[in-house]
Amino acid sequence: MIPAISIIVPAYEEQARLGDSIKQILGYIEREKLSAELIVVDDGSKDNTAAIAKSAAGDYSDLPTEIIRYETNRGKGYAVKTGLLAARAPLAVFSDADLSTPIEELPKLIEPIERGEYDVTFGSRALDRRLIGEHQPWRREQGGKVMNLIIKTMSGLPFADTQCGFKAFNMKNFRPLLEKMTIDRFGFDVEFLFVAAYHNLRLKEIPVRWNNVEGSKVSVVRDTRRMLTELNQIRRNARRGVYKI
Ligand SMILES: Nc1nc2c(ncn2[C@@H]2O[C@H](COP(=O)(O)OP(=O)(O)O)[C@@H](O)[C@H]2O)c(=O)[nH]1
Ligand SMILES: [Mg+2]
Questions:
Q1: For ligand 1, atom 21: residue with the closest CA
Q2: How much distance in Å is there from the Cα of 180 to the middle of ligand 2?
Q3: Which domains does the chain have, with CATH numbers?
Q4: CB under 6 Å to ligand 1: residues?
Q5: What spacing in Å lies between the alpha carbon of 115 and ligand 1's midpoint?
Q6: Cα of 165 to ligand 2 centre, how many Å?
Q7: For the whole prediction, is pTM greater than 0.85?
Q8: What percentage of the chain carries pLDDT values higher than 70?
Q9: CB atoms within 10 A of CB 23
Q10: Which of 41, 61, 100, 155 could form a disulfide with 79 if both were Cys (CB 3.0 to 4.6 A apart)?
Q11: What is the DSSP string of the chain?
């Protein structure tokens, strides 16, 4: 049976956080009686991420779960793309492994797509700051705000927060765009939204609850530098017609 929703979790070195998150997601699917599959993508972890995922999913053996693993770390963007290409449902969502946005926020993203109003919906930490429970460390949070401004300026996208790890897609309209995507690391969120907007898909930034969870693997210096390179790459691609179909 084809599920109604595919939930994708990109995971890199997540042995500490992933088991509990998988149980929360599968428990939610079971409680809400959703027709949903879970796809975990182990992005070349050197720890026990895949084994932990398999064992956590074993507690819910009635629910369809797929664990995809490849040996070399490619980046969150590559992991999410891999998951989306494997998604069987007409509606796909990806969520960070730490469930910074609780899975109970899912209806906020999927209902506008199910109603046929939007093609891509995505969580935002900027639209309603009251929904932030546990904040990131002050420096990281300020850095994030500056990065969001840079992204807005360089991409021309009108959104306040493009980087929240909680996004949903109408796959009928979004899948054909996946082959145009070129960015494997954290700039992929911007490229997804940029290419979707370029092809006139309907995008909606939606305020969601969010809590910082210890154990971030983002390196502020390295990943900020990469992000700037990737933003330039998106602009260059757009100029050269790379995103045309
Ligand atoms: N840092 C990092 N995260 C990755 C990578 N591939 C997949 N991910 C996943 O991307 C998500 C976001 O990472 P996280 O460390 O929670 O980022 P933060 O909360 O923004 O600091 C998690 O689900 C990671 O497991 C990768 O190469 N590097
Ligand atoms: Mg996180």
A1: 216
A2: 26
A3: 5-240 (3.90.550.10)
A4: 10-12, 14, 43, 73, 75-76, 79, 96-98, 100, 165, 216-218
A5: 31
A6: 8
A7: yes
A8: 100
A9: 14
A10: 41
A11: ---SEEEEEEESS-TTTHHHHHHHHHHHHHHTT--EEEEEEEES-SSSHHHHHHHHHHTTTTS-EEEEEESS---HHHHHHHHHHH--SSEEEEE-TT-SS-GGGHHHHHHHHHTTS-SEEEEESSS-GGGB-SPPPHHHHHHHHHHHHHHHHHH----S----SEEEEEHHHHHHHHTT----STTHHHHHHHHHHHTT--EEEEE--B---S-----HHHHHHHHHHHHHHHHHHHHHTTT--
**Minimum-distance ligand to the CA of 76?**
1
Each residue of 166-191: pLDDT tens digit? 999 999 999 999 999 999 999 999 99
Sign of CA dihedral 179, 180, 183, 188: negative
Ligand 1 atom 6: the closest Cα is on which residue?
Answer: 76
pLDDT at 220 > cutoff 90:
no
Q: How confident is the model at residue 95 (pLDDT cuts 50, 70, 90)?
A: very high
Atom number, ligand 1, closest to the C-alpha of residue 75: 27
**97 Cα nearest atom in ligand 1:** 23
- Atom 14, ligand 1: residue with shortest CA distance: 216
Residue 100 has which token pair?
């910074």
